[in-house]
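Quick one, tokens below. Sequence please?
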């Protein structure tokens, strides 16, 4: 059995975004922080940092947030950006405010364009993030695209060829799978994550993407009941489903 990591309560709650260590000390002095139903008296108490921490540790009777490693699945709405550096509303603005100051920080696993909706993973687990986006793993990403012009019938062979070159690049794309859903609608599965890849692939065959939505990453699909802008916390086993392909 691996030994649970122990952390001082004030540091742990400060890292989860509940305020400064002084703020946490004030909460403890006011008897607002309980461990298994009993008010904690000492903010320096050492706590075992385990995934089931929210079952034991409460603030004003409300379970604390799960400690790192945390993996979230979000239904990214249109018009919201994934990067901390871009202007405009960010995916992080759709999460509880304290999650923006968690340490370790949350980052998106890859990015979706502002004009793309659908499944985005957000995590503070660098190892998980790198495993998902690693070019060596070829984790499939599935997109539904709406197009400006009717499909010609040649796109599937071109995308599957492994020879398609995107403008400005030196290496051909790996084979991708196209499923035609309608005259101007298709599902595309890619195993790379090049910049604006799906839009540039359709541009390379003379079309234009007018709507793009990510349905799935590996074995993890966007739940039908997860509304745009909403998120869910994944268990470690649910997050690992990404690699079940
Ligand atoms: N490909 C794109 O062109 N845009 C995205 O957001 C994702 C994949």
């Amino acid at each position: 059995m691996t030994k649970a990591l122990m952390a001082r309560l004030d540091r742990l709650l400060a890292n989860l975004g509940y305020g400064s260590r002084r703020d946490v000390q004030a909460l403890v002095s006011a008897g607002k922080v309980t461990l298994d139903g009993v008010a904690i008296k000492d903010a320096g108490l050492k706590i075992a940092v385990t995934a089931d921490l929210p079952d034991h540790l409460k603030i004003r009777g409300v379970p604390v947030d799960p400690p790192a490693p945390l993996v979230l699945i979000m239904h990214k709405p249109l018009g919201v950006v994934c990067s901390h550096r871009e202007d405009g509303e960010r995916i992080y603005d759709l999460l509880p405010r304290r999650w923006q100051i968690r340490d370790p920080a949350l980052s998106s696993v890859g990015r979706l364009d502002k004009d793309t909706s659908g499944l985005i993973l957000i995590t503070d687990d660098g190892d998980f993030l790198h495993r998902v986006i690693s070019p060596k793993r070829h984790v499939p990403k599935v997109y539904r695209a709406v197009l400006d012009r009717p499909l010609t019938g040649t796109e599937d062979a071109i995308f599957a060829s492994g020879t398609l070159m995107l403008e400005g690049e030196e290496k051909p794309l790996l084979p991708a799978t196209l499923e035609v859903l309608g005259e101007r609608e298709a599902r595309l599965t890619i195993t790379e994550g090049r910049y604006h890849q799906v839009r540039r692939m359709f541009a390379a065959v003379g079309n234009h993407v007018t709507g793009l939505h990510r349905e799935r990453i590996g074995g993890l699909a966007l739940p039908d009941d997860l509304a745009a802008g909403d998120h869910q916390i994944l268990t470690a086993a649910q997050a690992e489903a990404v690699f079940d392909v």
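The CA atoms of residues 68 and 141 lie 25 Å apart. The radius of gyration is 22 Å.
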